[in-house]
Write a structure and sequence with these properties.
The structure is a single chain. The protein is mostly helical. The chain folds into two domains: 77 residues, Helix Hairpins (Orthogonal Bundle); 216 residues, Cytochrome c oxidase, subunit III, four-helix bundle (Four Helix Bundle (Hemerythrin (Met), subunit A), Up-down Bundle). The protein is 69% helix and 0% strand. It has seven helices and no strands.
Length: 294
Amino acid sequence: MATSSYYVPDSSYFPIVASFGLIGMAAGGGGMMNHMSSGGVGYAFPHLVFLVGTLLLAFVLFNWFSKVVVESRAGMYSPQMDKSFRWGMSWFIFSEVMFFAAFFGVLLYVRQWAGPWLDGQGDKGSSHMLWPSFDYAWPMFNNPDPSLPGPKGVIDPWHIPLLNTVLLMSSSVTLTIAHHALRAMHRGRTIFWLGVTVVLGAVFVYYQILEYIEAYTELGLTLESGIYGSTFFMLTGFHGVHVTIGAFILFIMWIRICKGHFTPEQHFGFEAAAWYWHFVDMVWVGLFLFVYIM
């Protein structure tokens, strides 16, 4: 039975360790992306810095969330604490919405305004001041700057992207079935359908890896292939990371359900994971429409 008082956790070193882990991941990742093998502190071994940062963050997440599970199972959380968790998760997802909105905004700005302006179109058109022979046409196969060659082609949306769309949309359905089964206290059905959801997420990541291999080896579509390549990989790459994280979270929920955690009345950990997963699925719909098709 949850206590009636508001639970205030003890002071913890987890936030500061998580900050160092994120800094290491950002510094190491930036070093790897820019092919930096020497230089300032942290960039001499970017792969090692990224690995250490990742391990630090994984350590924090495992121990911090384990503590939350123990406290929840001990009945230390009141209804007010449950409300705080819900507000916290809501604001987190809102921040994620803004994160992806920024990248979708870049894509829209380049395609609808910046590109045509460079071609001399519109009120702010440059009249080809930079490249007299520039002829704007998305996805810019023929970049005017020879140092940034455009891709040879783009991913066919009606093969792997369409398959991945079916996979993610199906995973939302299976996750909803699992949620309803949990609320009806059908634990076996919950375990099955949640497991199916995790598998669908893993298959999505597998096919996205195949898509990236095709883009790099056959289409010349890389982070260095102009603005189309950079926006493509920023949007689909960050989404792939979110799918990977979401599938891992759902797997942890699957383990907890197998252990007998959660009740029809108290299962916000599961609900939070479901909110996150449905959000990731909706982002993919936007990607499929605005990156692959349009």
